[in-house]
Amino acid sequence: MAQPVELKCVLCGASYAPGEVEYTCPVCGLDGTLDVLYDYEEAARTMTKESLAGRERSLWRYEEILPVVDKGSIPHLAVGWTPLYECPAVAEEYGVREFRVKDDGRNPTGSLKDRASAVGVARAIDINQRTVACASTGNAASSLSGFAAVGGIRSFIFVPEKAPVAKVTQLLVYGATVVLVKGDYADAFNLATAAINKYGWYNRNCAINPYLVEGKKTCALEIAEQTGWDLPDRVFISVGDGCCIGGLYKGFADLLRMSLISRMPKIVGVQARGAKPIYEAFKSKAERVTFGPADTVADSISVGAPRNWAKALRAVRESEGDMVTVSDEEILSAIPELARKTGVFGEPAGAAAFAGFRKMAGEGLLGRGERVAVVVTGNGLKDIENARKSVGVPMLVEPTIEDFSGQLERSGFPC
Ligand SMILES: *Cc1c(COP(=O)(O)O)cnc(C)c1O
Ligand SMILES: [Zn+2]
């Protein structure tokens, strides 16, 4: 387990000692998210390609660059080391050299958010905080409530009233105190921040608490290891607040600092057409993000006021990557296509990354020789209602072979 040596502001570059500040840069305020940095030379001494090969199959295999001091603080749920499948038929169809999909819906509560919650709850226990809180479009909340439950601490969750039922149910099942906020994610975020300040709870928001992105970065570390340290040329991931994409970048950046890789893949952020402030800022080469509307079926990326825009823009710019938007129809149609061609059933925000890949490939923006990976950030069972919009209806039959055969043969289905 590692003690970070420095917290560095992404906007102004100011440097703080760990413990001096816990959340964002005091000079830049909420926009000034911090990078958690380690003694990389020291870390590289024991975290080598060889030593990693034999370690436990969870994100804790990267202990040298994770900000947890006491091993006893780690909740027992198995998180990370999700599969990265290679799908040659998809590569062939879309005209790239290699196509891989990382199924992060396989995490214990069903999304990539578990990586952040695992580290966040361990950190809270490390520093003796007994109550953790967050605002969330859904998954960060389900995830926090699960990890808080096994960590033996309390959780307060603020979600927009419209959050999918499956996600809200998950919170209640894990025993979180759930606050449905009459408003959108921005309202939930503001209320959570006010409550956290008032009651002194530990803040699990990834855009405020820099230690959480440390959990998310492990997705990149795994991609590096799972490709045998021969990284893809391009990695697609969907973008809401900007923490997941910021985490991918941080993971690759840490590996570069440790000389475990020699180049960074191009990181491509995928936003919904109805919620695309980071896309707009990137395309217009703006220095800052202007907040805009948020209207998409993909609730996990329905973010008009992204809080971690600074890390998101940096990820795309510094990796020489790109941003792309997809419509709700494109997102919904990506759900069954992804499931049928790769076996991975993603929620709308997860399938959105695949929709972004499909769109760029269709527009001829990817090279024939490119090796591509798509991160599916959340499990399809999280949002059944939207998944159903993208598929047909089942047959309804009397429990007799006559009715079944009659319907089958009338349908013209080959049997
Ligand atoms: C949270 C989430 C995202 C977006 O992550 P941000 O860090 O908000 O950009 C994408 N997909 C799923 C399934 C999520 O839960
Ligand atoms: Zn700053």
Short description:
The chain has 415 residues and is an alpha/beta fold. It has helices spanning 40-46, 49-53, 88-94, 113-126, 139-151, 165-174, 185-199, 210-216, 218-226, 243-257, 277-283, 309-318, 328-342, 348-362, 384-389, 401-411, and strands spanning 6-9, 15-16, 34-37, 84-86, 98-103, 131-135, 154-160, 177-181, 202-203, 234-238, 266-272, 322-326, 371-376.
Count of alpha and pi helical runs: 16
Order of helices and strands: EEEHHEHEHEHEHEHEHHEHEHHEHHEHH
Instruction: Indicate the mean pLDDT.
Output: 95
What fraction of residues sit in β-strands? 5-15%
CATH topology of the domain at 84-110 and 212-389: Rossmann fold
Straight-line N-to-C gap: 58 Å
Instruction: Detail the poorly predicted runs.
Output: none
Can you tell me the CATH architecture of the domain at 84-110 and 212-389?
3-Layer(aba) Sandwich
Kindly name the structural category.
Answer: alpha/beta
Strand order of the largest sheet: 4-5-13-10-11-12
Q: What overall form do the CA principal axes indicate? A: globular
Query: Helicity, in percent?
Result: 40-55%
Molecular structure report:
The chain contains 16 helices and 13 strands. The strands form three sheets. The chain has a six-stranded mixed beta sheet, with helices on both faces. Strands 8-7-6-9 form a four-stranded parallel beta sheet, with helices on both faces. The protein has helices at residues 40-46, 49-53, 88-94, 113-126, 139-151, 165-174, 185-199, 210-216, 218-226, 243-257, 277-283, 309-318, 328-342, 348-362, 384-389, 401-411; strands at 6-9, 15-16, 34-37, 84-86, 98-103, 131-135, 154-160, 177-181, 202-203, 234-238, 266-272, 322-326, 371-376. Helix content is 40%, strand content 15%. The longest helix is centred in the middle third of the chain and has 15 residues, at 185-199. The protein has a domain at 84-110 and 212-389: Rossmann fold (3-Layer(aba) Sandwich), CATH 3.40.50.1100. Zinc ion is lined by residues 9, 11-12, 14, 25, 27-28, 32.
